[in-house]
Design goal:
Length: about 200
Amino acid sequence: MRFRLPKHWATGFLKKADRLGAALAVGAALVASPLHAGARNYASGFVGAMSDNEWGDLAVDWGSVTWRNATPVGGVISREWPVGRFGYVGTELSAVKYFGEQTHIEFAVPLFVRTPRPENIFLPSLAYGLGVSYATEPPKTEIARTGESTELLAHWFFDVEFGNDASQLRPFVRLHHRSHAWETFGARTGSNALVIGLRMPLDRN
């Protein structure tokens, strides 16, 4: 028996615009709130490519990966808080402009967790974020892959960052994923992009 409560909640009690506005407001409040002890702020930029594959193929079956004529270029403002030896928790606001077969803009608001940054700059820290993504129109790559799409979907990312806490520029590789989240958002679709970028701390000690 299919569990329908998430879909009912998503499509019945709240409109998409309300959910997006609430998520943006929460993310903006966290990022723009007064400085807390230990809080850190970052600006990031990235560029990448859209894949025609499922996200698992990019992780374990690189030989099967094919690419679409769609290039994401993004900017991110993020804030993170240390949680002792466990690493960091944070939130971010991202805006992504697409070029090629799709030209819309995407906004994403995830919360994330990050492992501690090693002192050795060649050893990475890892982050996983989960939130929502809003595209200004249904993405054409998602329609091409699955036959349908919608503006608002779930979003998660997996991020591999190099550099320690003192680094002023931190290169990273990220898997950027949009998902219907078990049909919570009304269209059985999704997309994956692999991006590379640089992250820069905004706080000066």
